[in-house]
């Protein structure tokens, strides 16, 4: 199987200024954007898995206050200039950042990142400096990560994440303002920051596609197969084109394999690592003697599913429409002691050349776009729009995503996956919560009213 190659533009303090207008333009032209953050660690896992959601939020907030973002992946999905529906021009950015405030680095996070080619020398020498919390007066009018994040907020694009609660907390604390004291206030703030909606691909994988596993690599590989099934059935399918416009563009192979790739013909008798197959990580890493290869695991699950189905339906006729081709697996119960957050989605043997956050952002957007393809509804981008100039003049925005029906949108918008919970966290303003003072002041600054 041919490995997909992703075109990634690396952004550092040395080229942020010349790339600034391009990044803003790419976000502006996007139907949606996908973000992923790489952190210096998350601290004690127990704090991130509290059953009480308020306590869980406090634990994630503590991690965001003591740890830092070290890279930010941004994938912009823009309609392709041709007439094909669900064809995108995709621009992927790998933004290297460096927190100017003191922060903690977890040894496990460092080891994992180094194994995947992350260059800490590059980060400390060329990372774009940022600080946490509220704005500092002397930083105004500079081309900074904080001002870039403000530009993204102003453009009001639908935001796509994978297991996004932690990303949102870190982004808020690192590039926006000091975190509010309660989860309700945080949700109210986020609802206003991203009014076009937030989409969590882990929620989609678990509760809509009903995959056996929902970690990023597995979900990505399953959606690739789903897209191939759509194409084979002559249905509308996702098509991705990469823009090659920058001297800072590098080509990164999206090798989503692992250790011990097995031919699909030899799947019988294969011993896959159940821990890795369920959660995308294994304590033994590259030393594990069982199979971690994603293609093999997906094929193994598919074969097992087919065997179970044949036992149940020996006398049933075989339906060969696209729904059968794309048949999804059942949800597997979430294990409470499994790390729910940002755990290794790439096997230790997969070197991402230090571009992991950007590849994760791309895969997240790809999963979301494939979901739209599988639910294809031929509707215009904005039923009420006339011309681009008139829309700009009216200064309106639309939260409608091309080819995503309102019915399907309602099923997935503003629902964040919660590990160990049977329901998602709703991104909404409740009648019992108010937006925070820091947010109210910051939002005015973002839109130039202060």
UniProtKB/TrEMBL annotation:
The keyword Zinc-finger belongs to this UniProt entry's keyword annotation: yes
Annotated region (Disordered), positions in chain: 305-324
Keyword Zinc: yes
One function term, GO molecular function aspect: 3'-5'-RNA exonuclease activity
UniProt GO cellular component terms: Cajal body
C3H1-type zinc-finger residues: 267-295
Domain C3H1-type: 267-295
Keywords: Metal-binding, Zinc, Zinc-finger
Biased composition range(s): Basic residues: 305-314
Superkingdom of the organism of origin: Eukaryota
GO biological process: snRNA 3'-end processing
Family: Belongs to the CAF1 family.
Name of the protein in question: C3H1-type domain-containing protein
